[in-house]
Amino acid sequence: MKNKISITLSLLMLLFMASCTKDFESVNTDPNRVNKISPGTLLNPIIYEVSSFNMRKADDFTFGLMQDMLPFPSVAGGVHRYDITETAGNSTWSTYYRWLTNVKEMYNSAVEQKDPNYQAIAMTLNAMIYSTLTDCFGDIPMEEATKGDEGIFRPKFTTQQKVYEKIIADLDSANNLYVTTRSMIYGTDMLFANNVSSWKRFTNSLQMRLLMRLSKRTEMGTLAKLRIIIDNPVKYPVFTSNDQAAILKLSGVTPFVSPWGRAIDFTTFRAAGLFFTDNLNDFNDPRRARWLTQARNKLNNANIGYKGIPAGYAGSDNQFDYVPSNKNIALVTAPMSVVLMSYAEVELIRAELEFRNNNTAAAKAAYERGVKASVEQWGAVMPADYFTNVKAAYNNTLERIMLQKYYALYFTDFQQWFEYRRTGFPIMPVADGMLNNKVMPVRYRYPPAVQSTNTENYNQAVQAMGGDNINIKVWWEK
């Protein structure tokens, strides 16, 4: 009898345990907690951190190379003298790959939740970041990158050509993914306030930038593709005004705070570049007051107009008998703007394409729209007689387009540097204090950590590129 009771109790216990196991997950799931991350939750941190980093790199690297701004006093060394250290690209490499991991998570979440808009946005951000990485370094890990969760800690490098083929194809696919009638449901994103049409315009505007970047690689047919985008605004909408541009507006109220912890650091021991100020003076440009302070006489008791100092100068700091113009601290004091891509850039890309196609009237019109957009983007008023000035008027040359594009790309990550490498414009003065045989560097060296921890793949990439130094041209420059 006892055995029968024991067997019966055992069976009941097994049935109870089976029931508990079956319902364990539902019973122990908190109905008030989200168990799947929304792709929208990742968007604002990615946009803010990447755009903030871009702005800081424009300040501490691009400004020096492109003679916008330089340290002062500066008795030796410095980016403006082409003194580029082996570790100069470290933060660019580590920061972008860190946020690419988040972009990947955003993309995977969007696919899993069948949200085509966030999927397209993730593809756009992925293309933007990878394009900047490859333009800084050349060949980079891409196909095997951000796969630490799969046990890939030493990723192979992808050639720059394949990187560009992939990201341009992704931007085209992203354009087709957007569903403008479907809303973005998570909060309000920092950049376009959840406007799907705005994100679609950004996707296509970015594709314009990258297609023009490959203008030397005629075998890629990118100028023909660019023509298709420009001629088909319904299928490929792009920025057509400043209020559509990819410009982050920071109010100063958390989380919209300035990337500068102390705004005063932006102007401490700094001076504007002479090349930068001289052209603005030639244009009689209203952007001067937005970007610069006026220079002062040697006694520092009177303004003498806008005047910088030459980049790469040799000799003592005492050779300058004036206090040079500095950057306007308001540029980094909220409320402020952080530029990812401007409408002015789109129009100047259009101007270059029309120039290359010998469409003089169309090139001139796009050039003038681009310059006007840049002036107004920075809160200045476009003078009615701006283009009557022979120094500012369109003269049917690529050099003139690129000179104004240089200013339109002000404070836009590395873009001034990239465009100079692509075209050789604007032509900037060379000074005796410049190193590297007075030749503009064209890339970062790979970080030492990459050399030591991913040695085999690093060596293969360096061999394919022809070396790892600041004078090795990347694929699209050749």
CATH structural class: Mainly Alpha
**DSSP strand count:** 8
Q: Any low-confidence stretches, pLDDT <50, length ≥5? A: 1-34
Structural class: mainly alpha
Order of helices and strands: HHEHHEEHHHEEHHEEEHHHHHH
Walk across the major sheet and give the strand order. Answer: 1-5
Q: Could you say what the CATH topology is called?
A: Serine Threonine Protein Phosphatase 5, Tetratricopeptide repeat
Radius of gyration: 26 Å
Helical proportion, percent range: 40-55%
Q: How would a crystallographer describe the biggest sheet?
A: 2 strands, antiparallel
The first-to-last residue Cα distance is 93 Å
Global geometry:
globular
Number of helices: 15
Overall mean confidence score, pLDDT? 93
Fold and architecture overview:
The model is unreliable at 1-34 (pLDDT under 50). This protein has a single domain (39-260, 333-472), classed as Serine Threonine Protein Phosphatase 5, Tetratricopeptide repeat (Alpha Horseshoe). 47% of the residues lie in helices and 5% in strands. A two-stranded antiparallel sheet has the order 1-5. A two-stranded antiparallel ribbon has the order 2-3. A two-stranded antiparallel ribbon has the order 4-8. The chain is mainly α and 478 residues long.
